[in-house]
Every structure is written in structure tokens, then in C-alpha cells.
């Protein structure tokens, strides 16, 4: 497997200075790429340019593509939700909310399927896999989430392996009638980010899956076991683990090369400053790239948190000299970035 290459890529990225402005740009690009390729896997017909128009510029109205437009908007929203919440311990509610965003574009948890679903061959329409019965799904999903959290806490199994196994098991359980593939890939992102392999959200595994789609499905098929109860839970997952880790290694290598090309000269002082910031502080720099002064509501929307949580963060950041008060009026209070951090944007 490519675990050594993944670790080397992670190490190189962590020691490569990246400006906040470039980081914000790369993160946005990665979300658009991930949205395009993950929805493309499911049959979405929009091009990369059209995805950018729909998501970034909010331009729609493509004749006969309303469903495609909705899919990419929803997936992008789900990616933003993952980026804003991955520091939290994974819960059933979080996972169900990810699916709710994927399918409906609403931050509302969706219940698991209440009946049998099947996976069919797109050409012959023959059943290629029958997931577990609906009555078993809830317990299986609870067990999966407990397993993920336990393994992440134990730190005995490499995080990429945990993510790969979680991806496989989610796809195996197939807890929903629709949206399983997209949710499985977002679950993978959540785990990798939570476990320290997010590279600040600037890479996309979805592109690798889409460009090697036959390998993706072949690896998930594991020995062509057509029914969950026929031994799929004991299947040999070597092929899928190798496929998954190879994709991560390629993505990590590419992002290092791209970062260096786009960011050839960055002062070491800026690099040191960035490492002093928390994940949420680094995320908030993207907001200051767009506007000089911010409000509590601006920060809440940008980070995907409640207004109360944003107010708590602002109070903390004022005390640590990350922010200063701009307009002191209670009704129109705004905040500025402390001069110490202005060089980062």
C-alpha cells in the first residue's frame, strides 16, 4: 500500500509555507473539483465550467439540467458542512445531516431507508448486489460510527485505513435509497479531516475515483459477493485498501506540486504565523480576504456555526489579539483583523 507516500506527502505539506490567500483559493477550487467529480460518478452531466457557474456564480437555468444543478449545489453545501464540523466527534446526527444536504440541500438529518434496496447493473439492469435488510441498518450504522470513533481515538490503525474501511462499510450497508455513494465519499472526507489528513481541505479524492471509475467499482465489489448475508462482511478488502491509499498518495503528491508552483516564494515569517492559528482562525482569514470588517453574523455564516458560537469565538479572539473592534456601536458592532495578522491576507 501507499501509506509511506501519504505520510511523506502530509509531512511535506505541513512544512510548505502557504499564504492565506492561496489557501483560500485552493480550498475553493478543491470543493468545486470534488463537487464536479463526485456528482459525475452518479451520472451528473454538468461540465466543470458549468459546475463553477452554478455553485460559484449561482447561475442556473440550463435547459433540462435542473436536477443536475440541484445535485451540485447540494454536494457543495455538504462539503462546506464537513469543513465546518469535522473537528467534532462523528455522530449519527452529523452523518444523517450530511446525507440531508446531499439529497435535499437542507441541514436536516434524514432517516435510514425503511425497505429493501438493490444495486443494479446500469446496462443489463440485473441485480449485482443486495444490501442488508432495513431492520438491520440502524444497528449496523450505530456500530460503524462507534467503530470509527474508537479507532480514531485509539490511534493504532492509520487514519487512511480507517477512512477506507468506513467508506467500504457505508457503501456495503447502503443505508439510504439514494445518495449513498456521495455520502460515503463525504464521510471519508470527514474522517480524514478529523484525523489530521485533510491538508486544510485543498485536495480532492473524488477526482481520482471519477478518473479511475472502473477500478473504484471493481474494488468496492470485492469478489462479486451479490448479497450482504453471503459473507460480504468477511470479504478480503486488500484491493479496495490499495485502490484507496493509491488515490490518496496521488492526490497528496499533486497538491504539493501545485502549491509550490502557485506559491514559489513565501516568507518563513508568514509560515510561522499561520502555524500559530487554530483551524477556525485560518478558515476565518478567507472571510477577511473578502471584506475588511466583519460582524458576528458574517463569521457564523462563513464557519457554518450558530451566531452564539460565533460570538463566543469572537470574544476569545479579542482576548488573544487575533481580532480588534472596528465599530464599537452595540447595534452595528464590527471587527477587524489585528494588525499582527494583516500580512497573511
UniProtKB/TrEMBL annotation:
<dbReference type="InterPro" id="IPR003812">
    <property type="entry name" value="Fido"/>
</dbReference>
<dbReference type="InterPro" id="IPR036597">
    <property type="entry name" value="Fido-like_dom_sf"/>
</dbReference>
<protein>
    <submittedName>
        <fullName>Fic family protein</fullName>
    </submittedName>
</protein>
<dbReference type="Pfam" id="PF02661">
    <property type="entry name" value="Fic"/>
</dbReference>
<dbReference type="InterPro" id="IPR040198">
    <property type="entry name" value="Fido_containing"/>
</dbReference>
<feature type="domain" description="Fido">
    <location>
        <begin position="90"/>
        <end position="243"/>
    </location>
</feature>
